[in-house]
Amino acid sequence: MTKRTTTRRSTKQTTAPLGPVLGTRALNRATLDRQLLLRRSPLSALAAVEHLVGLQAQEVKPPYYALAARLEGFTPEELSGLLADRAAVRIVTMRSTIHLHSADDGLTLRPLVQPARDREVNYFRKGLVGVDLDRLAVLARELVEAEPRTMKQLRAALGAEWPDADPQSLAVAARCTLPLVQVTPRGLWGRSAQVALTTLEHWLGRPAEPAASPDATVLRYLAAFGPASVKDMQTWSGLTRMRAAFERLRPQLVTFRDENGVELFDLPDAPRPDPDTPAPPRLPPEFDNLLLSHADRTRVVPPADRGRTWQANTVYCPLLVDGFLAGVWRILDDALVIEQFTELTKAQCTEVTEEAERMLRVLHPDASYDIRFGTVIP
Prior knowledge:
The protein is of the alpha+beta class.
């Protein structure tokens, strides 16, 4: 009797390696470089806004501080001029928040994130019982294109059409269903104006354009924020189910993993500086893109300092030292006050003070402020 032998095949699945590990400092320096914070860039304000895929802009001043921290030769008049000439716009896009975009990006990125705006409307369904959203969009468009309207005016006008609905829900639904842009003088440096809205197409005198493709937007995100994970990109954009786009792009991307084993994607030729590259102090604004555009923010925010840039409803401007969050700052009536989270060296304090002086010369050349280290967060 012949003895038969069998070969037992392993059922264990193999997976492709995720790539080399990038430590926290390596990710920090790569992201700072993409964000124009490792060294100041000679880019124009418009080119920088497009490279960064917009700047978060709930308030008027943050985009100006963001560009002052990033660009060589920047003046606030340059950005104001873009808004006044309608080459840049303030519109709800990423993460359901107001962003300052180039006009071209406003036309293509807003329809890309429309699914997220549609989900936002669902949160207000209780206040929209009996409201035909298609009819609401038509009426709201007629109202804001006849003349720019404030949210208060929209609430009143739409409430007259649907008196049983919640007025705030009606106005939010209009903002979500239509690409409403904040008209100037809102957003101009040194000017004060309440928010008034019209449609993006009416403001620009240009028709709507097709949405930017998810694949192209992933590539732009990586150029400005990479290396990054799928979850990072979803956190930045407010979009879901972006894994498919990354998988389509995988053949033309490189992959790494962070210290926790999370897969990170990147453009092959994107800068990834040496982790020991010097990173000068920077004073970006509250809600800066750098701090809000990754699911895992430890590449900029040390775990011990997570959540320290806000308290209750107040958000403070971050101080970056050696590329990482090291404190907060705030301009008061007569002083720029800097609060340290950890003790800075004498040399670091000098560098921070010099950076603060530079920022004040750029944005407040006619004002006189003391610069002092003290308490910002009560």
